[in-house]
Amino acid sequence: MQFFPLALSIAVLAGIWTYFSGQFNLLTWPAFVGWALFFASGGNAESVKKTFFPSVCGVILGYLAVICAPYLGGPALGVAVGVTIIAFIMVMLAPIDIFAFVPAQFACCAAFFGTGAKFWPTIIPLVTGIGLGYISAILPNLFTKQGKKDSAAH
Can you say whether the dihedral through the CA atoms of 14, 103, 53, 58 is positive or negative? Predict the structure, then answer.
């Protein structure tokens, strides 16, 4: 029963996001990548920061690989060279605290390519997903604390 409040908050928010994203023509799935990364990095308030910066960095680096491709050997070879360079950069950023969660950089770079190399259609849902992860993590605590206060009063 301990997972029920978390499962319920995630389920309700996932449904709301899915409906909202469809109504506003936003990609739904990248939010679930951001959401998963939030929980993979600990699922707490610190996880927002741990996930946000490397996620945005991964998208930016993917974008740079695409826009630099023509200068690195053309469409196929240029993107391959660009990805080689940005993969190196992502790992080298690991010692910097705000970029230490390297899996977020790789996952969000992959999400960028998965959206057809579209910057804003990737960033907006990814960041929204991180926020939804945070909200889904704190909602059960609000209900649990309220429940404890109510039962202590009786």
Answer: negative
Q: What is the DSSP string of 33-77?
A: HHHHHHHHTTSSHHHHHHHHHHHHHHHHHHHHHHHHGGGTTSHHH
**Long-range contact list for 12-19, CB < 8 A, 24+ apart?**
13/132, 13/135, 13/136, 13/139, 14/132, 17/128, 17/129, 17/132
| 133: pLDDT strictly greater than 80 | yes
**CA distance linking residue 53 with residue 26, whole number of Å:** 21
Residue 50 has pLDDT above 90, yes or no: yes
- State how far the Cα of 88 lies from the Cα of 102, in Å rounded to an integer: 11
The residue that leads in pLDDT, 124 or 154, is: 124
* Long-range contacts at 69-78 (CB < 8 A, ≥ 24 apart): none
Tell me which DSSP letter residue 83 carries: H
| Mean predicted confidence (pLDDT) in 6-27 | 97
Question: Interior CA angle at 86 toward 85 and 90, to 5°?
Answer: 125
Question: Rounded to two decimals, what is the model's pTM?
Answer: 0.89
The owner of tokens 């230490």 is 100
Tokens of 126: 């990814």
Q: Kindly list the domain boundaries of the chain, sorted by start residue.
A: 33-38+47-134
